[in-house]
Write a structure and sequence with these properties.
mainly alpha, Na+/H+ antiporter like fold, three-stranded antiparallel sheet, 8 strands, 11% strand
């Protein structure tokens, strides 16, 4: 035993005052292990006596050839890699889908032939229903101003950015027109909800904005395209077909998942206790989108000059950054004018849902629009191709943002202890 420490932890009334810990032996070996024992007295001003014992443990083993090695180093890299993969599961899944689509597009085309992407969206909303708690629904109803602004941002404000996109000159011009069309679309069907869940945001709020904006978008998108991109050009959409598709892929699985949760008491507890597992399943289902889209577009992509397509990719990234910046600034401004820290816009759960959902644009509705245009704006494949890249980029970029928010939230929830000063044979600590 290298040393023994006796410490007194003060009562709650003194919790914010520095506590001094005198050490009998400060110089503990780097490979020592600390063992804690404590006893609690029952007096009014409670005191807890804590004994910390340190003893050395061997950190080297003989490899049989007369030399010694540290076994912890052998496991260190594997453990770090495993932790990195767990903390960044969604971005890695999305990037893996893109790579797999380029390397072997035949598998992705086969999956598309059997509508695997629609099954993926169906599964994401089943999980959303299973994880939807009644408290989340109540929080979403209380945050109705956020829903209203989110719908306005998605359907009315962000389409204005198409005017900025159209100022760019690039050959083929269909790349520019495609991105302008993309900015007029409603939000993504599944990505925004999945990322909100990952970030620990208000999933019910994200679901409300997603479902309502896509249903309203069927009627509003044609007017946005006519006004911002092709004034005077009539644009029609298969309204009935799109409405039916959205009900089947969004509303029905969401309701089914919620009904299952409420019908089986043990199921809700199981889902709540395994939210990390369900978030990883969500990530795997979401990764089907880039895999299938890249597989479908690979042959067309190879016909375009790499430098031109790279410019189109950068344009799509810039468009998404502008949408993110707009929604972040709008959220902060509305928070400042509607109550400050007490505003519904100031809550992290609401703001993260708003920023993620309102800044994304959906690809399936765009594809339906382009098919109905009949070549009025150029070659259909060239119109869709930059939007595929923009769709993938926004998911990958937002996955890093959501993961950053998640890790930041986990870190803030942990107990914090700050070292205030160290002098002589004592170190002062302060709980914050």
């Amino acid at each position: 035993m290298a040393g023994t420490l006796q410490a007194m932890i003060l009562s709650p009334s003194y919790i914010n005052k520095p506590v001094s810990f005198p050490f009998m032996n400060r110089h503990l070996p780097p490979n020592s292990t600390l063992l804690f024992t404590r006893s609690v007295s029952s007096s009014r001003n409670r005191s807890i006596s804590t004994t910390i014992k340190a003893h050395e443990r061997p950190n080297q083993i003989d490899d049989g050839h007369g030399s010694k090695r540290n076994p912890s180093k052998d496991l260190n890299w594997g453990e770090r890699l495993f932790n990195f993969a767990g903390n960044n599961f969604l971005p890695l899944a999305l990037v893996s889908g893109v790579v797999l689509g380029f390397v072997n597009p035949s598998l992705g085309c086969l999956a598309d032939r059997y509508y695997l992407s629609k099954f993926g969206t169906f599964g994401i909303f089943i999980i959303s229903g299973l994880t939807l708690r009644n408290g989340d629904v109540g929080a979403a109803m209380e945050a109705w101003p956020v829903v209203i602004f989110g719908l306005c941002s998605i359907l009315f404000f962000t389409p204005f950015f198409s005017k900025i996109v159209l100022q760019i000159r690039l050959q083929p011009q269909e790349f520019v027109t495609g991105l302008a069309l993309f900015s007029c679309m409603p939000t993504t069907l599944s990505s925004g909800v999945a990322l909100t869940n990952l970030a620990g945001g208000n999933s019910a709020l994200a679901l409300a904005m997603t479902v309502i904006s896509n249903l309203l978008g069927i009627m509003i998108v044609p007017f946005s395209i006519s006004r911002f991109i092709a004034y005077g050009v009539g644009v029609s959409l298969p309204t009935e077909q799109l409405f039916r598709s959205l009900v089947i892929t969004l509303l029905i699985p969401l309701i089914v998942g919620k009904v299952f949760r409420e019908s089986f008491k043990g199921l809700g507890n199981f889902v709540d206790q395994n939210r990390k597992l369900f978030s990883k399943v969500n990530a795997m289902l979401l990764s089907l989108v880039p895999w299938i889209q890249v597989s479908r577009s690979r042959s067309l992509l190879l016909l375009v000059k790499p430098e031109v397509f790279l410019v189109a990719i950068l344009m799509g990234m810039l468009l998404h950054l502008m949408l993110l910046s707009f929604n972040i600034l709008a959220s902060q401004s509305l928070s400042a004018v509607s109550g400050g820290s007490q505003s519904v816009f100031a809550k992290k759960e609401n703001s993260s849902a708003l920023i993620l959902v309102a800044s994304q644009k959906t690809l399936p509705v765009l594809v339906a629009v382009v098919e109905q245009l009949g070549g009025a704006f150029g070659e259909s494949g060239l119109l869709v191709l930059p939007c595929v890249a923009a769709h993938l980029n926004q998911i990958i970029m937002d996955s890093f943002i959501a993961n950053f928010w998640l890790q930041k939230g986990l870190a803030s929830n942990k107990a914090k202890v700050q070292v205030v000063s160290e002098s002589g044979d004592s170190i002062s600590f302060k709980r914050i």
